[in-house]
Amino acid sequence: MIAELFNQLARSRRSVFPDQFEAGKKVDDAIIKEILTNATWAPNHGKTEPWQFTVFSGEGLNKLAAFQSELYKELAGDSFKELTYTKLQQNPLKASHIVAIGMKRTTNKNIPEVEDIEAVACAVQNMYLSVTAYGLGGYWTTGGVTYKEEAKSFFGLGELDKLLGFFYIGYIAIPSKGATRLPLEEKVNWIKE
Ligand SMILES: Cc1cc2nc3c(=O)[nH]c(=O)nc-3n(C[C@H](O)[C@H](O)[C@H](O)COP(=O)(O)O)c2cc1C
């Protein structure tokens, strides 16, 4: 029975984008803590527990919006796009909470960097599944200043650490639809003998 429920949960999980969120409706911090606790139960090699989350809500969302739009403006040079700047300034305000997803690197355990990144990705999938279970919407964005060295310190990340993006969370006003996946046969080879 739990397997059937989980099949349904995993397959109905969808990315829900900021314009689909219910404006102004806030998620209780207690639910956000449950979502993040589930994130920290993700598998990780060598017990590095490499995730480091910074949660923005309330006035914090304004701070994040100002930080990322101004840093984008500062670094964009000739590739500056007004639309990107405006989105970086306005999108955070459409969410209830935004989790900045950090990878804190452990170097003394002989675990390859990619495995710390993979562990954080597993943590983010736990967030995705958790918001789905709570009837909330969310999505992982790697846009804006995600991979900029200059962004790291704002999120408490050091030189060897990585900012892996942002997980937006909000109540759903407009559900996502139209998701498809390729047939399983195209993605799986079975070797039986
Ligand atoms: C590592 C990663 C980075 C992503 N970055 C973005 C992004 O920058 N902008 C965006 O709109 N969606 C982003 N997404 C969400 C994808 O667009 C989304 O997962 C995809 O459209 C499939 O839809 P689904 O999540 O509903 O299955 C990202 C997803 C992953 C796994």
Number of helices: 5
Helicity level:
25-40%
Following the backbone from N to C, one meets helices and strands in this order, namely HHEHHEHEE
Strand content: 15-25%
What value does the Rg take, in angstroms? 18 Å
Distance between the termini: 32 Å
Write the CATH homologous superfamily of the domain at 22-55 and 94-174. Answer: NADH Oxidase
Mean pLDDT: 98
Describe this structure in words.
There is one protein chain. Helix content is 37%, strand content 16%. By secondary structure, it is an alpha+beta fold. The chain has helices at 2-12, 29-40, 59-76, 82-90, 113-133, and strands at 51-57, 97-103, 136-141, 162-171. It is globular, with a radius of gyration of 18 Å. The model has no long low-confidence stretch (mean pLDDT 98). α3 runs antiparallel to α4. A four-stranded antiparallel sheet has the order 1-2-4-3. It has a domain at 22-55 and 94-174: NADH Oxidase, CATH 3.40.109. The chain is built from five helices and four strands. The longest helix is centred in the middle third of the chain and has 21 residues, at 113-133.
Task: Pick out its properties.
193 residues, alpha+beta, NADH Oxidase, 5 helices, binds flavin mononucleotide
Summarize the structure.
It is built from 5 helices and 4 strands, in the order ααβααβαββ. The chain is of the alpha+beta class and 193 residues long. α2 (29-40) crosses α5 (113-133) and α3 packs antiparallel against α4.
Helices and strands, with pairings:
Layout: H1 2-12, H2 29-40, E1 51-57, H3 59-76, H4 82-90, E2 97-103, H5 113-133, E3 136-141, E4 162-171
